[in-house]
Amino acid sequence: MSSRPTIQTPTDPGSLPMTLPLLMEKKRLADPIVMVTAYDYPSARAAEAAGVDLVLVGDSAATTMLGYNATTPVELDDMLVLARAARRGLRTPLLIGDLPFGSYEVSDEQAITTAMRMVKEAGCEAVKLEGGGESSVRRARAIVGAGIPVMGHVGLTPQTATALGGWKAQGRSAGAAARIAAEALALQDAGCFALVFEAIPGAVTEELMALLEIPVIGIGAGPATDGQVLVFHDLLGIRDGLGARFVKRYANLQQDMNDGVTAYAEDVRARRYPGPEHTYSIKPEELDELRAQLRAGKQA
Ligand code: KIV
Fold first, then answer.
1. pLDDT tens across 187-215, in order?
2. CB 82 within 8 A of CB 55
3. pTM here?
4. Which positions are annotated as active-site residues?
5. What is the rounded CA–CA span in Å between residue 44 and residue 42?
6. What residue ranges line ligand 1, CB within 6 angstroms?
7. Is 195 helix (H, G, I), strand (E, B) or coil?
8. Best substitution site from 128, 167, 228, 246 to test ligand 1's pocket, by max atoms within 8 Å of Cβ?
9. CA 28 / ligand 1 centre spacing (Å)
10. Alpha-helix runs per DSSP H in the chain
């Protein structure tokens, strides 16, 4: 049992909406920050019920929701539909919209316009963008300058996974780890309110944590970060296969869904469904009257 102070009671219906100052306070208190992805109303309701701090409408929706095998094909308009649905299911967590590939890289104007659409059209309170290179940092600074909070994302950045050599851990040499450190510091300097560290050795994360003042949320980056994020479908097993090494699976919902739909199909084929309990009734005299009318109608 931890004796650390907490600033929110997760399932308390009166709990305060998450804000950026509260997030910083959580970091200061070493109170672990919980983040999860959500892409629709039911997943957002689950996040709300669990009292998580941050909800990300991730571009992982490309794979989890839309069936692509990479995150790059998802369109901004797709993300807006998903983010609006998630928004309707949330009250307390801070809602962050992921900027999809191709929606922010071209210019600062494009990045600001996209971020504003996430805020105005979907009700996101912040946005996330990938990468800590020069142009990503410039975009982050521009969006922050326009008054929209930005979360950065370094390490494995799936939008540019091909350029990084595939979906694999990053920062496994001193040089590569130092580059991630420089990117993280540059994003912090650009005004990002928090960072995601993805697929980075735990020992590297520990070294970098000492350099950073803003909250760091890890996914496959070990236990030293200020919080953790997992993809909703990964943690609930709504997928085929096991997924990345860092995923901990808390349920096996794909199997449960398959079993449920299979049982339904079997019931229909065997005429076990619907039963009397699933069927509406009508008074016998009304039925008699109907039969009489139908007979009369037939004779006419
Ligand atoms: O798109 C996403 O789900 C993400 C998380 C893995 C952080 O970027």
1. 999 999 999 999 999 999 999 999 999 99
2. no
3. 0.92
4. 198
5. 5
6. 37, 56, 58-60, 98, 153, 196, 219, 229, 231
7. strand
8. 128
9. 24
10. 20-29, 41-50, 61-64, 76-88, 108-122, 134-145, 174-189, 202-209, 232-235, 253-269, 284-299
